[in-house]
Structures are given as C-alpha cells and as structure tokens.
Amino acid sequence: MRAFIRPFATALTIAGLAAALSAFSVNSAQAQGQAGAAPPPLKQIALSEKQIEGAIAAQKDMNPITEKMQENSKPDPKVMAQLEAIAKKNGFASYDEFGTVMDNIGLVLGGVDPATKKYVGSEAVIKSEIAQVQADKKMSAADKKQALDDLNAALKSPEPPVQNKGNIDLVVKYYDKLEAVMGSDQR
pTM for this structure? Predict the structure, then answer.
C-alpha cells in the first residue's frame, strides 16, 4: 500500500501546489479590483536547468511557510513578501515567475510514472493509480472510495499536452530531487 500512497500523495501535492499558486493569482487579481477573474491558463515555457535547480532550492525554503497557509484565504502581505524574497534569492525575477516554473514542472511531473521514472502522460499515470487502488485489498473501503473519486475527477480534467518537449528530459533528470521537496510533507 505504501508503494501506492507515496506517488498518489506526490501527485496530490503537485496538484495542491498548482491550485495554491492559482489561488494566489486569483486573490491578487481580486484584490486589484478584478473580482471574478478566472485563473489564467497555464503559461508553458521552456525550462532551464538553472530554473529547476532554483525551484528545488526555493521550494525547500517555501515549504515551512506555505504549509501554514490556509487554502482560499486572502494571502497575508508579509507572507507574500517572504515568498517573493525567497523566489528572488533563488534566481527568479518574482514569485509569479517562480509559480510559472513550478506549474511547468508540475505539468511534466504529473505524467511521470513513479515506478519507471519515465514520462508516460498524466492520463496513463492516473489510470495506473486507479488500477492500483482497485487492486489494493488492505485499503479501507472509505479510503478506496475517496481515492477513486479523486482519481476519476482528475481523469475528467486532463492536463494540456507538454508543448516544450525538452522540459520532459529536464524534469525526469531532477525527478528524485523534485519529488523530495514537493512530496516532503506527505511522508
């Protein structure tokens, strides 16, 4: 069961991070008088090794701060200033640029098979996780139902295709380090 839970938890962490970053963008837009603005679509960029290394370093510093934040609450300006400073310290022009890089990393990570560490696409990963949950005899019925509901919902909201194919090779190269910082709160 642990073999399933960890990749599933990592996938949920990545999804949660992307949602949190989007929520901050939406809250910022609403605070600036653009109430009702939908989150912007994912801006796909070509990633560099420097950006991925900076994201890993920044995420280590940001995790203790973001873990304390409540979802859907208005971000505290002091907290946002801390996150902005961490992003700049790690080579990003702003927290927004860091968010764009993390979104692009998350897009690729969502399609990496945790067992083989090869990119297979998010749909294939989700279908594999559904099969693992269905086959798990040790998972409680309630946990199994919740996991299957979450996975089926994710399957109905497919990720856009990765436009920058070079991102796949870079993210796979740093997979273990990325998984460690993005999944650290799930261990």
Answer: 0.74
